[in-house]
Structure to design on (142 residues):
């Protein structure tokens, strides 16, 4: 019989949760023609305001060309637009009025899904898990 270390079991449980979670979120986002990565960008813009391509790449831990493709699709959908930044070379990505409405609609649609996923998990445990995952992310990205 093979026994996993506590570390192995932690990451195994994370893996077992992550893919089904993303797949179910993507199903919820289908009617908006979005995927979870695009949704993450829309939430960032809603929560933190306009960002540059570089800021988005750094926040999402992806390459700038990937950000360009993400943004192009969201522009096509009418959810975001580019505006001039502090200087002429800098472009900021921001939500459109339609994008803001869609973000609010999606948040409301996802709320029951998140509540169901977290059923039986205390608020304190959610806070602890959030801190643990943030620490692991920081360690990995050092």
């Amino acid at each position: 019989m093979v026994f996993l270390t506590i570390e192995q079991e932690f990451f195994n449980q994370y893996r077992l949760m992550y893919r089904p979670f993303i797949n179910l979120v993507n199903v919820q986002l289908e009617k908006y023609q979005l995927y979870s990565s695009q949704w993450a960008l829309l939430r960032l813009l809603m929560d933190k305001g306009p960002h540059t391509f570089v800021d988005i790449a750094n926040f999402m831990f992806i390459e700038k060309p990937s950000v360009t493709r993400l943004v192009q699709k969201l522009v096509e959908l009418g959810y975001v637009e580019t505006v001039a930044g502090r200087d002429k070379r800098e472009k900021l990505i921001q939500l459109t009025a339609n994008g803001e409405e869609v973000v609010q609609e999606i948040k409301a649609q996802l709320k029951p899904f998140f509540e169901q996923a977290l059923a039986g998990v205390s608020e304190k445990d959610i806070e602890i898990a959030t801190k643990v995952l943030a620490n692991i992310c920081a360690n990995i990205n050092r």
